[in-house]
Amino acid sequence: MPQSQITTSTKENKPRHITQPFIIVGCLIKRNGKYLLIQQNGKWNHPCGWLELEESLIDGAKREAEEETGLEVKIVNLIGIYTLIKHKGEKTLHAVKFIFKAKPTGRKIKHADNLHYDWFTLEQAKTLAFWDSDVPLIIEQAEQGFGYPLSIVESVMIK
Length: 159
Hints:
The protein is of the alpha+beta class. Helices cover 16% and strands 45% of the residues.
């Protein structure tokens, strides 16, 4: 099977060459029966992004949620681990996503200016256009009470 290669860049403008699966971390944030979703370029998603080098899954999910929503959050549990494969012409993106349940702490922080966000019920979310096609499933699983203790994803750094 031919190996795809996609080049993206990090915040520091260092190129990433994607030739194998990569890790995405993110959160579902629920308040008053609604989920906080972000919109960029006309499509919605839960707050999420790349796991950075030497960053724990929990710290990465918290960082992404705070960067994208402007809310400080507390990570509650792991909703699940998901595989998402997208085909873009001859190229393939293969993400392994660790999605956590998070609660806003009430403290606001600065978020990305190019993102819009809003709160949606599960039924409202099902009508949206998403970047990641698995978002409605993840919200449904959160509604059903899916969740695993954080201890199963805690990191040990060996230096």
